[in-house]
């Protein structure tokens, strides 16, 4: 069953470098085979930003809200990503770093959502939370989601 994994738009206090680099890019490779990744950025130039980071080739579909005409948390952008991948919301997992934008929007589109946060054990919003791409890969590949 394919899953939808969103891995962009990381903002402080979790620096992008901490999550995407320093050996953690290999986690995208671990997820590449069994899962499909989608990026939805709220900024224009999403393709260029991912290419500059050296990870564009890890995303099958990249949606740019400036081109789609809606932005998160509007469920229409999540539905556009699902349609582009040919995946239903029941078969998707959306991972983002902003509760009000990512989790709320994904849930409104009928998707399961996970929040990427610096400390998943700390008190926080009512949703699944994960601390890193390493933990995400382990959760998905070792059985956190059936």
Give a description of the structure.
The protein has one domain (4-142): Rossmann fold, CATH 3.40.50. The chain is 38% helix and 16% strand. It has helices at residues 16-20, 25-32, 46-52, 65-68, 75-85, 99-108, 133-142, and strands at 4-5, 36-41, 61-64, 93-96, 112-116, 128-130. The strands form 2 sheets. The chain has a 3-stranded parallel sheet. Strands 4-5-6 form a 3-stranded parallel sheet. 33% of the residues are buried. Mean pLDDT is 75; it is low at 1-23.
Walk me through the topology.
Layout: E1 4-5, H1 16-20, H2 25-32, E2 36-41, H3 46-52, E3 61-64, H4 65-68, H5 75-85, E4 93-96, H6 99-108, E5 112-116, E6 128-130, H7 133-142
Parallel strand pairs: 1-2, 2-3, 4-5, 5-6
Helix pairs in contact: 2-7
For CATH, the homologous superfamily is named as HAD superfamily/HAD-like
Radius of gyration: 14 Å
Distance between the termini: 9 Å
Classify the fold: give the CATH topology. Answer: Rossmann fold
Give the second-level CATH assignment, the architecture: 3-Layer(aba) Sandwich
Give the CA-based shape. Answer: globular
Instruction: Kindly state the percentage of residues in helix.
Output: 25-40%
Structural class: alpha/beta
Mean pLDDT: 75
Q: What is the count of structural domains?
A: 1
Number of continuous helical runs: 7
Q: What is the H/E string?
A: EHHEHEHHEHEEH
Range of strand content: 15-25%
Number of DSSP E strands: 6
Widest sheet: strand ordering: 1-2-3
Indicate the CATH class.
Alpha Beta
* Biggest sheet details: 3 strands, parallel
Low-confidence stretches: 1-23
